[in-house]
Design brief:
It is a single chain. With 210 residues, this protein is α+β, with helices and mostly antiparallel strands. The chain has two domains: 2-79, Glutaredoxin (3-Layer(aba) Sandwich); 86-195, Glutathione S-transferase Yfyf (Class Pi), Chain A, domain 2. 55% of the residues lie in helices and 8% in strands. The protein has helices at residues 10-22, 41-44, 65-75, 86-119, 127-147, 160-167, 183-193, 196-208, and strands spanning 2-5, 27-30, 54-57, 60-63. A four-stranded mixed β-sheet has the order 2-1-3-4, covered by helices on one side. The longest helix has 34 residues, at 86-119. Residues 85-210 form the GST C-terminal domain.
């Protein structure tokens, strides 16, 4: 299987981490977004959205990171990352979509303003955006903190939802996003980031900002 990837992308990071957790080997093809490789006809034939990640499994092509992760989990169902139980799977889906719609956009916009914007020479932070997204981030972090009450993992056992959520936090230190008021989140992300699968997946990203 081949993964079209960009090392700085949180969406690609979650696919790499899930693949490592499952022991699924992927051939990584780096797509240089800044050079416009994602706009080349060859890439657009795989994903007309011009976005990474994209998975190729023989003649089967799949885009959208959550769909790719679910597909990989289906290859190794014994790992239990996308459980069969109706209620447990519903909880995994609940937190997956909550991350996609609520926490993810807020934290990613805040990280962009406070870190990536300067890193990529795109100007100074917009204080209006920073204020709005910091407020939204704090609101959603409080929800996650409550959701982790008496749990090591968000759906009870380690699942795809934990990896989806974790990628939201990938630039928290660089952006100065503190978890001091959210001890359950701090413990949870520490456990996730200590896993070998995460360490292997995040290594290319850390090399970018070394």
């Amino acid at each position: 299987m081949r993964l079209y990837n960009a090392n700085f992308s949180p969406n690609a990071l979650r696919v790499r981490a899930v693949a490592h957790e499952l022991g699924v080997e992927l051939e990584i093809v780096e797509v240089d977004i800044r050079a416009g490789d994602n706009r080349a006809a060859e890439f657009l034939a795989r994903n007309s959205n011009a976005k990474v990640p994209v998975l190729e499994d023989g003649n089967f092509v799949l885009w959208e990171s959550r769909a790719i992760c679910a597909y990989l989990a289906g290859i190794r169902p014994e790992a239990g990352l996308y459980p069969d139980g109706l209620k447990t799977r519903a909880l995994v889906d609940q937190w997956a979509w909550w991350q996609a719609i609520h926490l993810g956009p807020a934290m990613q916009k805040l990280s962009f303003e406070l870190f990536l914007k300067e890193k990529f020479g795109m100007g100074d932070p917009d204080p209006t955006v920073v204020e709005a997204e910091r407020k939204a981030t704090d609101q959603f972090l409080a929800v996650l903190e409550t959701g982790l009450d008496d749990k090591d993992w968000i759906a009870g056992a380690l699942s795809l939802a934990d990896f989806y959520l974790a990628t939201t936090f990938m630039y928290r230190d660089q952006a100065g996003i503190s978890l001091d008021e959210f001890p359950r989140i701090a413990g949870w992300i520490g456990r996730l980031e200590a896993r070998d699968s995460w360490q292997k997946a995040v290594a290319p990203l850390l090399a970018l900002f070394a």
